[in-house]
Design a protein that fits this description.
By secondary structure, this protein is α+β, with helices and mostly antiparallel strands. The chain has five helices and eleven strands; from the N terminus they run αααααβββββββββββ.
């Protein structure tokens, strides 16, 4: 089981890395096309390509800088300023010299508008950060198979849902039952049945909660839900008419439990790769505190 969890983690990391690499390659391809259009002074084309670049990755400053540059060159200095401010917030060190140069040019030429172009898209692109939707595999020592889906928003709260469990919840039982002392109840051939002392504990859990932003790339989450657990005893059956023994599973009705479950933790989202870690508590019993880890994808919300 632990081996499967490790393989699942490694597989999702590989897929996430491939996705991020492909996105970055497309981003750089658009960047080259933009610079070619700048050399040709095709500012309308620069605007359109910058729009595509912002849509591809709203958290990088290049698209905002190219938008500001094209708007300035087409006589739209007032429209250029908010894009330039956004570029300053998100831009890399490599982009800073270009940003400051353009900022200086806008200040010097604020009363000397350049040639104006007609039919420019007013408003062009709203300057906002795009919310994201995520889905992740979640590992917990008691319930190692889990899935969580939800949203992380830049303003306001997001919501999420988690469901997790372990394979033992699916144990098949017949008509046998056993109590918490290991006494087996059955008729006919089961009258001589005895427990072997081997017990399985099945668990399934559902959580609903909220997420909220601290500062990109960090979000927090907290949720509550229901935990259901069952207990199964291995039973050895001795048939006097047929030599040999066979084993079956008996359910323990006394151990079926429904209890509250709460959790909390933090999410790190890197525009595609989504990581989470935190703790969960069952039945408000501090001895039942466990950790959980998650890894998966996040996509832009439409």
């Amino acid at each position: 089981m632990k081996t499967f969890a490790r393989v699942a983690f490694a597989f999702i990391v590989m897929l996430a890395s491939t996705s991020v690499y492909a996105q970055q390659a497309d981003f750089l391809k658009i960047d080259k096309e933009i610079n070619l259009s700048i050399n040709q002074e095709n500012w309308l084309q620069v605007l359109e390509l910058a729009k595509v670049q912002i849509t591809m990755d709203v958290e990088q400053g290049e698209g905002y800088y190219y938008s500001a540059l094209a708007l300035f060159k087409t006589g739209k200095s007032k429209m250029a300023k908010p894009y330039l401010e956004q570029a300053k917030k998100l831009g890399s060190e490599k982009l800073y010299p270009k940003i400051f140069e353009l900022e200086k040019a806008i200040a010097i030429n604020k009363n000397k508008p350049t040639k104006k172009y007609e039919n420019l898209p007013e408003g062009f692109i709203p300057i906002r950060k795009v919310d994201r939707f995520f889905y992740s595999y979640v590992y917990n020592p008691t319930a190692p198979f889990g899935l969580t889906v939800g949203s992380i928003n830049h303003r306001g709260i997001g919501t999420y849902m988690t469901i997790r469990g372990n394979p033992d919840i699916m144990v098949k039982t017949g008509d046998l039952t056993a109590n918490s002392l290991g006494t087996v109840y059955g008729e006919g051939e089961f009258e001589n049945a005895e427990t072997t002392g081997y017990i399985k504990h099945g668990v399934v859990e559902g959580i609903m909660g909220i997420t909220w932003k601290i500062h990109k790339p960090l979000w927090m989450y907290a949720g509550a839900g229901l935990n259901h657990s069952r207990e199964f005893w291995e039973v050895e059956i001795i048939d006097e008419n047929n030599p040999g023994k066979r084993n079956e599973w008996a359910k323990n009705p006394q151990a079926n439990r429904n209890q509250a479950a709460i959790e909390g933790g933090m999410i790190l989202d890197f525009n595609g790769l989504n990581l989470r870690f935190g703790g969960n508590l069952r039945g408000f019993d501090l001895t039942n505190v466990e950790y959980h880890l998650g890894i998966g994808f996040s996509l832009k919300s439409k």
